[in-house]
Amino acid sequence: MQVCHLCLSTVDTHYFANLGKGFASSGLKVIWGTLYDSRSPSWMNQLDGTEYFSLGVRGRAHYPLAIARLAWFLRRKRVDILQTHLFDAGILGIIAARLARTPVVVLTRHHLDQVHLIGNRFHVWLDRWMAKQADHVVVLSNAVKNFMVSVDKIDAKKVEVIHQGFDFESLEATEKDRERIRNEFGLDSRFVIGCVGQLFETKGQKHLILALKELAKEIPEGHLLLVGGGDRKPLEDLARDLGLQNRITFAGYRKDIAACFSAMDMVVHPSLSEAFCQVLIEAMAVGKPLVSTDVGGAPEVITQGETGILVPPEDSMAIARAILDLYRLPERREQLARNAQSSVRKRFPVSLMVERQLSCYSRLLKDIPSQRS
After folding, report:
1. Looking at the structure, do residues 150 and 27 belong to the same domain, yes or no?
2. Which of 10, 6, 51 is nearest to 28 (CA)?
3. 280 domain-assigned
4. Which of 163, 189, 223, 354 has the fewest CB atoms nearer than 10 Å to its CB?
5. Are residues 160 and 227 located together in one domain of the fold?
6. Are residues 191 and 281 in the same domain?
7. Are 230 and 340 part of one and the same domain?
């Protein structure tokens, strides 16, 4: 079979690297493409025969040309399956694949209800249209499937859950990593509450900052380390208004995520909406006690009270109570961390993700006859 994956911006992520390496080890050579990024990712250098292309899009005004280029490419390469990732790539990919008469189009939905939360009616309609037009939909959690079936009214048989897999060797960190990060940000002997995620409204960092205000008296040495790119000004303004500017460090975007996690004494994920959330898996894999909002796929990853603590979203007081409870019980923190590390390493290996993805392809090609002339 000839498979092509198309993403909006970049495939230089752990998710795509793990998929790519897994496909290569199974003998499947995949074509990887993006709308924007002209650079092939470094992980491809390790794989023989892997192909990469960019449509060279410079803005939405160029989308019609990008669709024509993609349709020509799919037909020339005789692609059997096109799998798309992220919103715009889904739209362009579906249209181009139909023009090219590509036999199978798989839409990967990486979000839960974010389009409903921050989009308009047209965005919501497009999201539903893509799911209905695609031959199959792959999602990363049961929460996303349930949402698509109940809210978007997509046929449940069309939606398949394939949990993201992780290379746990890359998520190991040492005591030297911990010391390096803590020295870099001057954290010294502080009790570091960490949060990793893009600085965006739906990630809920403001509720964690509000919780920190409640914790200031109870945890005098408490400090918040925010890791992630994005617009930090609204959060900086909130911290300043609450008098917490000296208790918060904005670390920006980092690639050494495992090392950053190792520098934290506790991880909090205050998101308002999540499809699956790899941050939870990564924090647990490094061996950190975790407090997360009970949204999306979080309960599929965390067993309440055994591998982490789940709290309601947008509830800073609940976040503060959970943090304080674990702060006061260091032995419980350690037990949660051990349980979490063992759990995710058993349940989310790369091999299982790749195996299920390959099975999906074989089944779709068998069930859907070729549409090529």
Report:
1. yes
2. 51
3. yes
4. 189
5. no
6. yes
7. yes
Which tokens is 19 given?
């998929």
Residue with tokens 């408490």: 222
The pLDDT value recorded for residue 115 is: 83
CA distances from 77 to 80, 86, 150, 244, 359 (A): 9, 23, 37, 56, 22
- pLDDT tens-digit series, residues 316-354: 999 999 999 999 999 999 999 999 999 999 999 999 999
- The answer to whether the CB of 81 falls within 8 A of the CB of 364 is yes
What is the three-class DSSP state of 111? coil
CA gap 32, 53 in Å, rounded:
6
Q: Which two tokens stand for residue 304?
A: 């309440």
Token output for 124: 């919501």
pLDDT band with cut points at 50, 70 and 90 for residue 116: confident
23 is in which domain, residue-wise?
Answer: 3-165+350-367
Going by their DSSP bridges, the two strands 30-34 and 3-7 should be labelled as parallel
Do 176 and 52 have their domain in common? no
55-80 per-position pLDDT tens digit:
999 889 999 999 999 999 999 999 99
Q: Are strands 30-34 and 51-54 parallel, antiparallel or unpaired?
A: parallel
End-to-end CA distance of the chain: 17
What angle, 0 to 180 degrees and rounded to 10, lies between the N-to-C axes of helices 14-26 and 350-367? 70
Stretch (H or E) spanning 354: helix 350-367
Closest CA to 117 of 83, 151, 70, 69: 151
361, amino acid identity: Y
Q: How far apart are CA 313 and CA 113, in angstroms?
A: 14
- Of 150, 167, 149, 169, the C-alpha closest to 159 is 149
Instruction: Name, in order, each residue with C-beta under 8 angstroms of 87's C-beta and a sequence gap of 6 or more.
Output: 8, 115, 123, 126, 127
Q: Is 368 exposed, middle or buried (0-12, 13-18, 19+ CB in 10 A)?
A: middle
The angle, 0 to 180 degrees and rounded to 10, between the axes of the packed helices 316-328 and 330-347 is 110
Q: How far apart are CA 280 and CA 267, in angstroms?
A: 9
* SS3 call for 100: helix
| Total domains present in the chain | 2
